[in-house]
Amino acid sequence: MLKVFIDDYNAAERVKDELSRLLFTPPVFLCIGSDRVTGDSLGPIIGQLLQTSAPVYGDLSQPVTALNLVSVERQIRLNHPDRQIVAVDSAVGAPSDIGSIRVFAGGLKAGEAMGKNLPEVGDISVTATVCAKSAKALSCVRLGLVYNLARRISDALKSCCREKYSAELRIRNSFGDVYEI
Length: 181
What we know:
Blueprint: E1 2-5, H1 11-22, E2 27-31, H2 42-49, E3 56-57, H3 69-79, E4 84-93, E5 100-105, E6 124-132, H4 143-165, E7 170-172, E8 178-180
Parallel strand pairs: 2-3, 2-4, 4-6
Antiparallel strand pairs: 1-5, 5-6, 7-8
């Protein structure tokens, strides 16, 4: 497991390297969270920033939350059976962990801070600790922290996709044109 802090000069590079080490197929990103709670908006913001990098489920216009998480993961497994799912979510942790990014093999359990009992999702997980204490603190998180974490993480994920899977991750725009990232 990699743990790096946002203010680490090489944070994005280290996140990219760890993700590259764990990925064996082109990824599908499952970005979890709600844009209605600042501290929980990390996933949808990252999803928005990743739109042209790989298949993305969960962004600001169509968030993946506790209400639809199980059905969305099922849909991903059906639509992309040969790809690894990279689950992305915000986390609550110790005060000393605020601003940390974690990348690890295996799924994550979304909603634990809120007392939800959801199944583990994803093959690889990327989390960022946005606040300490309880889930109630998620609404008091500064948007600047969440956005800076989201930019750093999305830059690393895009870079990894570009370096490792540019030929496999061809994007078709709404006009039917295909272009590579």
